Amino acid sequence: MRSLYLIPARGGSKGIPGKNIKPFLDKPLICHAIDQAREAGADDCDICVSTDSDGIRRVVEEYGLKVPFLRPAELATDTAGTYGVILHALEWYRERGREYDAVVLLQTTSPLRCAADIREAVALWRPGIDMVVSVCEASANPYYNIFEADADGNLHISKGDGRFTRRQDAPKVWEYNGAVYVMAVPSLLRMPYSQFPVRKPYVMPADRSVDLDTPADWLRAEQQALARQ
Predict the structure, then answer these.
(1) Are the beta carbons of 88 and 72 closer than 8 angstroms?
(2) Residue 229: pLDDT over 90
């Protein structure tokens, strides 16, 4: 299986301004994703940083990885989705004679992900699976402590009949942690990955599942990374 390791890195960021090149511990945040892809076994020619930013491109190339293109402006807005970014990258490589079986999407905002997480998620993928996606156990459970309001505004349990009185008795539920997505290219060419019918989980622990969205997330992730050293 030939995989494209895709690292999306838009220049604009509202929650954490300039986050992709902001130093996280000892190096720019995006460089952690590059190192993780390399340590997972990816060749540099199969690692693609998709960015609209000359500043991000400069940092990445100073780190030793060639940025093959700058993505078009319409794929760099606040409302542009990752799916379009993936299709653009695949088309760019296809036009140059390079075909891939899978895309391994690595978001920069998961710096506590490790190379083993990537390798193990990739190893779970096989033909017939649309996507292997990293998850962690959800912090809330629709069988136990998530509620919906009915037409009268009264709360009722979101899922099931409300018979679970202890969280540990309820079925486990999972949430995407944003760290690793391994997606079949034929599936991507047919539909957005949010619509994939066959999705297999790669379970990661909570302490590696921090997704950087706010300055508080950043501080917590740095503290956790320092504790692991």
Answers:
(1) yes
(2) no
